[in-house]
Amino acid sequence: MHAFFHAVSVFWAHLSAVRWAPLGIALGLHALKLGLRGVAWRNILAAAYPEERVKRLPVLGAYVAGVGVNAIAPARAGDLVKLYLVKRRIPGGAYPTLASSLVVETLFDFVAAGAIFLWALQQGVIPSREVIRRLPDVDWSWPLQHTTAALVIGAILLALAIVGAVYARRRIESLRAQLGRGFAVLASRRAYLRYVVSYQALSWAARLATIYFFLEAFRLTPSLHNALVVQTVDSVSTLMPITPGGAGTKQGLTAYALRDEFSVSSVVSFSVGMNLALVVANVVLGAIAMLLMARTLRWRKLADAERAGTTPA
Fold first, then answer.
1. What is the pLDDT of residue 161?
2. Which of 35, 155, 211, 214 is the most interior residue, by most CB within 10 Å?
3. Within 13 Å of residue 222, how many CA atoms lie on the same side as its CB?
4. Residue 278 neighbours by CB under 8 Å, 6+ apart
5. Which residues contact 3 (CB under 8 A, 6 or more apart)?
6. pLDDT at 292
7. Per-residue model confidence (pLDDT) at position 239
8. Cα–Cα dist 265/38, whole Å
9. Which of 294, 297, 300, 298 has its CA nearest to residue 312?
10. CA–CA gap between residue 106 and residue 287 (Å, rounded)
């Protein structure tokens, strides 16, 4: 993280050169992306609960609130917020069903991100294992530099996963029906393509367009190639979210990926600037959504309300 804070100082030094009109367009496209993904998740939930009227705005609010939390908390903590908030808006909603709906919500992402990743491998964008070990800015280079410790930790996590699987197997019958409901939209290929994939494909287009205008805002050459490179780095840096949003890792990988086209300082300024702008946007939008839905920003109050089975006042 030290390297990230140094990168922030580099960003402030370049702030006067930012083009504000493209920056505003980029943030608008980012908000559009969130809206499209929220609608896609709503459609997944509507298929899971056909007997209920699943409204768009509450689901979109829960999705945006979760994104806001994920922007400042590691390990996808915002997904728990999404589940909590949306459960209060669906009568009879169950956490296993809601959780499995989030799995469905990521299926197309694996296809899209996988295609971009294969393109990146062909273009030499992804650094090799040896290169990653020499990049101090990449936070998850630690497992590559401490192989034995990483293997021990991995073995412990695997053992815990096996114990959890054995325990879950005893209760699988009671969970199977609830988990299966989350995948209901997949029963109809046409419905899945029309009501989920179509919105998610548009959200990916908006995501790349967002990066395009961020590149223009920070005076780097905007192009589809460069947008794909930045998106690849974003996906790779958040595989193991040790820091919120992959801060530090993202800057190190971006500087490496675009090393042949731009100076390191300009790339770092762009990466930090885009990251900060998106974090601020996500946090602000997420806070507004949480206030409207839960009437509080206090985590303890949300937890107490969940244990009591009530909605925060």
1. 75
2. 214
3. 16
4. 30, 71, 245
5. 136, 137, 248, 251, 252
6. 87
7. 60
8. 35
9. 294
10. 23
CA proximity to 185, closest of 47, 36, 49, 42: 47
Q: What is the CA radius of gyration of the chain?
A: 21
Alpha-carbon distance of 48 to 42, in angstroms, equals 10
For residue 148, pLDDT beyond 60:
yes
Angle at 62 between CA 195 and CA 277, to 5 degrees: 100
Q: How many CA atoms lie within 13 A of 282 on its CB side?
A: 21
User: Distance from CA of residue 172 to its chain's centroid?
Assistant: 29
For residue 30, give the nearest of 249, 208, 263, 271 by alpha carbon.
208
Name residue, tokens 């054995």.
Answer: 166
**Measured distance CA(229)–CA(119) in Å, rounded:** 9
User: pTM value?
Assistant: 0.79
Sign of CA pseudo-dihedral 13, 266, 145, 71: positive
Neighbours of 254 (CB within 10 A): 27
d(C-alpha 235, C-alpha 117), whole Å: 9
What is the DSSP code string of 171-184? THHHHHHHHHHTTG
Q: How far is CA 294 from CA 55, 66, 246, 305, in A?
A: 16, 12, 28, 10
Distance CA 121, CA 235 (A): 13
Q: Where are the domains of the chain?
A: 2-308
Let me know the angle formed at the C-alpha of 34 by 33 and 39, rounded to the nearest 5 degrees: 100
- Residue 275 phi/psi, 5-degree rounding, is -60, -45
Give the pLDDT confidence of 95-121 residue by residue, as tens digits.
999 999 999 999 999 999 989 988 988
From CA 74, how far away is CA 275, in angstroms rounded? 15
Kindly give the residue spans of alpha helices, DSSP state H, lying in the chain.
Answer: 2-13, 20-48, 56-72, 78-87, 95-123, 129-133, 142-145, 147-170, 172-181, 189-192, 198-217, 224-237, 249-257, 264-294, 299-308
Residues in the chain: 313
